[in-house]
Design a protein that fits this description.
By secondary structure, the chain is an alpha/beta fold. Helices cover 38% and strands 23% of the residues. The chain binds flavin-adenine dinucleotide and NADP nicotinamide-adenine-dinucleotide phosphate. The site of flavin-adenine dinucleotide has 21 residues, from β8, β9, β10 and α9.
Length: 389
Amino acid sequence: MPAPSAPKEVAYDKNHPFPAKIVENRIVSGPGSRNETRHFVLDLRGSGLRYTVGDSLGVYPTNHPMLVEEILAALGATGEETVRFERSGEVVSMPLREALLSRCAITQPTRRLLALLREVATAADDCERIDALLADEKARSDYLEQRELIDLFEEFPSARPEPQSLVDGLGRLNPRLYSIASSPLVHGAFVHLLVAVVRYETNNRNRFGVCSTFKAERVESGVTPVPVFVAPSRFGLPENDAADIIMIGPGTGVAPFRAFLQEREARRATGRNWLFFGGQRRSCDFLYGDEFLAAHETGLLTRLDLAFSRDQPRKVYVQDRLREQAGEVWRWIRGGAYVYVCGDAKHMARAVDEALRDIIAEQGEMSADEAAALLQTLRRERRYQRDVY
Ligand SMILES: Cc1cc2nc3c(=O)[nH]c(=O)nc-3n(C[C@H](O)[C@H](O)[C@H](O)COP(=O)(O)OP(=O)(O)OC[C@H]3O[C@@H](n4cnc5c(N)ncnc54)[C@H](O)[C@@H]3O)c2cc1C
Ligand SMILES: NC(=O)c1ccc[n+]([C@@H]2O[C@H](COP(=O)([O-])OP(=O)(O)OC[C@H]3O[C@@H](n4cnc5c(N)ncnc54)[C@H](OP(=O)(O)O)[C@@H]3O)[C@@H](O)[C@H]2O)c1
């Protein structure tokens, strides 16, 4: 991670992140939810950072200190050993502990790391097992997916690289991006984020998403500096405030749409706003539910369609709600509406894309190819935008 304190006149960016403070950190998923979703407010005052709705905030996390101590113990290192990195032609030295905390990806082992362990392994059994993994791409990727660096140290006890080789063999700890959930017109330099905290178990160990748990648990509000930068995006509102918008954002995918709505209200945009939101249960997963219901009440949201997947025996998703409203969705699109999708890339965005194609084909009386071509045109014209991850 680059040093988070640059002189005042330097513009803060990805290479010179601003040391922001978290001033609010609260759980917004209710009791009984299978997710832990948090609302954060970060104070960017004094940074000079500018953002527009649709942009993301980049956050440089640090790894879990307990995990770093486990790694140091397995390595038989004190943590004080000096290691070096090259950055933009400059050599930076730091203690091994600091490197493992803030510079190295210790939770995502790679083939390169496995190859390094093979080089230094001394026990025949370790060498044989690593060789087998190096030779079989599928077995290796299945194996690595379930493991972190600490697992490899446990499973190959004779493979102990020198501190410098280890940090050279590890990937870089990258910043994570988060859709900004607030409008600068309303909240100025206080940036809001909506974050699903990642926790899961693999290989019989509890795992912690590096950045989401960093912000949720390891940052002391108002005290710990959180290195951030603005990641500009082409995902954004139409310049024409009279244009209608359709927003499709289940789960944390709704974050930028909260910002869109704040912005449209502040700009007194006359275009209509339609939100499709989805979550598992209305009672605990209706993220920013009160705000969206109030916006519907005042008419800021012309339409609000909700898909709570687990409130009835059959799952209902946002794409099902879109299909139910096919005629109206088509009328909005034909009338020039912009369509936005945000959230899960793997399943949701694909299913929504398919639903949109079907709606266009059926309602516009087109062939599947013509509908796909129209959607492509909408994409080119920035009238169909996706921010999916
Ligand atoms: C443009 C953009 C905008 C984004 N906006 C948001 C947002 O508004 N809110 C938000 O919460 N996130 C958002 N994300 C995702 C965010 O950037 C991070 O990827 C997310 O917070 C996880 O980061 P982490 O460091 O906590 O977890 P990591 O340490 O990166 O761990 C995540 C990895 O853990 C593994 N994993 C996760 N769950 C499991 C499981 N059950 N079983 C096995 N392996 C698993 C997967 O390999 C996954 O990639 C956005 C991403 C992008 C690219
Ligand atoms: N937000 C994302 O885009 C994203 C991406 C990758 C991983 N995750 C992980 O998921 C957890 C919570 O994330 P979240 O709050 O964003 O949302 P979430 O609660 O996981 O999902 C929101 C809603 O989307 C539904 N859904 C599941 N599959 C879908 C599909 N194919 N098409 C449409 N909707 C679908 C879910 O239903 P069911 O669960 O009932 O099926 C739920 O009702 C976190 O651990 C996060 O890391 C999220």
